[in-house]
Inverse folding.
């Protein structure tokens, strides 16, 4: 290979580039990114960035790219991919040919059914900068969506001394991801810290009212706030691939090695789903460590590796000083056991067909290694 193109200014992209150079690839590497910024970390956007701390710094400084001989094409998104001609077409109609391609375009916030013009979404450093400025004049923030990002934003603005209201369609937050028991514990935890939760009701529209905003709910009631943030999940950035012929189904479909359905094309990070042999299912993971590890693994595959990508997934979230850590999977669990529960501590195990597949540890990080080993060995879930 003489030229490898990496599409997406993401965490996965940076680690793919680093692994390519570590793997002795001496050819040309082109990084294509829709944002004008060098790739940066996104987890701080819902926490430190909103609190007024410095915005995330680039993952690598400009000198690193120069020394590694990386050609940067930032501020112009990819518009299409021709896998027959091996060409990436940019929004300005320029075409960049490739011998190998890494797709790492990440995910974008899901939109509401209506009222999007009156809400803030939080995905980029520019989004965070605008939202942080608006928080200076706000007293009450409505957050639509009780997932991890929504709860982190609610916790952050509450710690800033603002009133926060979370609107969640499920009876409790994160029920679909982690189960009703975990959702109930998190709901009580957030209420104790001052967050208002409006659950079991769908946000159907947002409209301006004088200098405030009314969030209309499905039962006809409403929440009125100075600022509205929507955090209702993310969708993989695959629109630019619709005519490429690649297999796509809630992400770029890849095999167990991270190869996509075209020669010399791999994918990494939030944009893709792959077959995971440990869990015997096709999964998509939107978390920091997965992006790092997949970026490096995808690069190795382009350079000749045929190893499957099969780690135990891991992610974390920090809310009101509580450290939430999760290993494995909770999807399709047929056995959920509360292993330890207190006002400030929670340990939950997830099993499927007699074997442990996941564990949530809140303020119990020392137990993670034990549960990870149990998942790898397919040990039975037990108290």
């Amino acid at each position: 290979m003489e030229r490898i193109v990496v599409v997406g200014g993401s965490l996965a992209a940076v680690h793919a580039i680093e692994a390519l150079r570590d793997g002795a690839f001496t050819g040309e590497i082109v990084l294509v990114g829709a944002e004008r910024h060098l790739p940066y970390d996104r987890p701080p956007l819902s926490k430190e960035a909103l609190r007024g701390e410095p915005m995330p710094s680039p993952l690598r400084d400009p000198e690193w790219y120069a020394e590694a001989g990386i050609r940067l094409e930032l501020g112009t998104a990819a518009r299409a991919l021709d896998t027959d001609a091996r060409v990436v077409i940019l929004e300005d109609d320029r075409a960049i040919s490739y011998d190998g391609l890494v797709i790492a375009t990440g995910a974008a916030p899901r939109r509401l059914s209506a009222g999007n013009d009156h809400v803030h979404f939080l995905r980029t450093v520019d989004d965070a900068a605008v939202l942080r400025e608006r928080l200076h004049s706000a007293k009450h923030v409505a957050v639509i969506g009780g997932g991890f990002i929504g709860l982190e934003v609610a916790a952050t603005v509450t710690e800033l001394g603002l009133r926060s209201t979370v609107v969640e369609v499920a009876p409790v937050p994160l029920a679909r991801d982690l189960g009703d028991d975990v959702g109930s514990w998190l709901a009580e935890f957030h209420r104790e810290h001052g967050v208002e939760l409006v659950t079991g009701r769908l946000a159907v529209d947002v409209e301006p009212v004088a200098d405030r905003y009314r969030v209309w709910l499905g039962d006809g009631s409403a929440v009125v706030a100075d600022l509205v943030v929507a955090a209702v999940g993310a969708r993989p950035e695959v629109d630019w691939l619709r005519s490429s012929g690649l297999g796509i189904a809630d992400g770029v479909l890849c095999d167990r090695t991270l190869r996509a359905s075209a020669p010399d094309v791999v994918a990494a990070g939030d944009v893709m789903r792959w077959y995971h042999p440990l869990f015997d299912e096709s999964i998509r993971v939107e978390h920091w460590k997965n992006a790092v590890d997949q970026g490096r693994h995808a690069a190795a595959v382009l350079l000749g590796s045929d190893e499957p990508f099969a780690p135990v997934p891991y992610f974390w979230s920090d809310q009101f000083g509580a450290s939430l850590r999760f290993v494995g999977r909770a999807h399709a669990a047929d056995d959920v056991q509360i292993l330890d529960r207190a006002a400030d501590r929670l340990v939950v195990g997830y099993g499927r067909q007699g074997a442990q597949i996941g564990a949530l540890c809140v303020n119990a990080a020392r137990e993670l290694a034990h549960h990870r080993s149990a998942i790898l060995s397919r040990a039975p879930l037990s108290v």
User: Anything to note?
Assistant: Residues 321-376 form a domain with the Enolase-like; domain 1 fold (CATH 3.30.390.30). The helical segments are 11-22, 62-67, 125-135, 148-159, 175-178, 180-192, 288-302, 368-376.
